[in-house]
Amino acid sequence: MTDLILKIENLNKSFKGQKIVDNVSLEIQRNTVYGLLGPNGAGKSTTLKMMTGMLRPNAGNIIFNGHTWTRNDLQDIGVLIETPPLYDNLTATENLQVRTIALGLPQSRIEEVLKIVDLTNTGKKRAGQFSLGMKQRLGIAIALLNKPKLLILDEPTNGLDPIGIQELRQLIRSFPEQGITVILSSHILSEVEQVVDDIGIIADGKLGYQGPAPQGQELESLFMQVVATNRKVGY
Predict the structure, then answer these.
(1) Which end of the chain is more exposed for a tag (fewer CB within 10 A), N or C?
(2) What is the mean pLDDT of residues 22-49?
(3) Helix (H, G, I), strand (E, B) or coil at 230
(4) Helical (H) or strand (E) element with 49
(5) Percent of the chain with pLDDT over 90
(6) Phi and psi dihedrals of 205, rounded to 5?
(7) Confidence of residue 235 (pLDDT cuts 50, 70, 90)
(8) Are 150 and 180 a contacting pair, CB within 8 Å?
(9) Residue 182: which H helix or E strand, with range?
(10) pTM for the predicted model, two decimal places
(11) How crowded is residue 72: how many other Cβ atoms within 10 Å of its Cβ?
(12) What pairing do the DSSP bridges indicate for beta strands 33-37 and 198-203?
């Protein structure tokens, strides 16, 4: 029996008459890492933004935790889309304090999330002086403050060096054990295949595959097949 934390049914989004997300349906199992794959411009970020209320779909349903999604569900969802929302002149602790005050969360949560992302020893160093990897981890710490059941990460390894990628990979893989389901968007197949349980592949706004993640050459072949098929339709 499946235990879905998120189910998306026939999601559509258009901008100025151009369809960006075309009838996409997804099923995300609880306490797993789900990889949402596709080339740049495939519609991944738009899909994620509709999951989080940043964009309103033109059609379709979003079912979260067994009920139709409402804005109240944001208290159970953590999000890092695009650049981490950091104040460069503040320390890691101060960045988190701003959010705990705004959200009415206990200050004790700050030390908890800093420990999770391994940023407890940054002291008075300001976020503007952090490496890209540290900034990404602080962005994830912010997303974890509300103890989310679902964590959405959009291209989290962009710009990271190999060490930063490895650290982030280990962090992401640890979340399901903590009761956190992860949706990870990326176009870098070699990174995704090492952390995900299931994948969906989107090309030109259409879902071309959903299911268990194949490895290595099989994943690359499947990805290229989905992209080629949808480009034939689109062009």
Answers:
(1) N
(2) 94
(3) helix
(4) helix 44-51
(5) 68
(6) 80, -5
(7) very low
(8) yes
(9) strand 181-186
(10) 0.91
(11) 8
(12) parallel
Closest CA to 138 of 153, 159, 118: 118
221-to-26, 182, 210 alpha-carbon distances in Å: 21, 24, 14
The token duo for 167 is: 């650290």
Q: Is the dihedral of CA 157, 162, 168, 173 positive or negative?
A: positive
- How far CA 9 is from CA of 26, 61, 93, 100, in Å, comes to 7, 5, 39, 34
Q: CA angle, corner 52, sides to 161 and 155, nearest 5?
A: 15
CB 94 within 8 A of CB 47: no
Q: How far apart are CA 130 and CA 159, in angstroms?
A: 13
Chain segment 177-214, per-residue pLDDT in tens: 999 999 999 888 887 888 999 999 999 999 999 999 88
Computed from CA positions of residues 205, 211, 213, 219, in that sequence, does the dihedral angle turn out positive or negative? negative
Other beta carbons within 10 angstroms of residue 2's beta carbon come to 7
Tokens of 12: 């559509």
In sign, the C-alpha dihedral spanning 107, 32, 3, 187 is positive
Q: Count helices and strands (H / E) in the chain.
A: 7, 10
132: three-class secondary structure by DSSP? helix
Tokens of 126: 């300001």
* Cα-trace Rg, the chain: 18
Distance CA 78, CA 216 (A): 30
